[in-house]
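Ticket #4471: structure output looks truncated?

Reporter: J.K.
Steps to reproduce: submitted the chain below (54 residues) through the standard prediction queue, then opened the result file.
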Amino acid sequence: MSKIHTIADGRGRSLSIHVTPGQTADTKRLEALLEGIAVPRPGGAAGRGSVRTR
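Returned output as attached by the reporter:
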């Protein structure tokens, strides 16, 4: 048997999936699942680290 570990968004769409042997603990796969999620950022990488002024 095997386990399917998945993380989904609020609409039920899969963001990250890993299949492991059935005896693998769920908590041991959490880090790998989280690393598999890419979050798009508005403005791309150029927008990061800029200082806002008023």
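Triage note (M.O.): checked the attachment and the full token line is present. Residues 44 and 50 are 12 Å apart (CA to CA).
Status: closed, working as intended.
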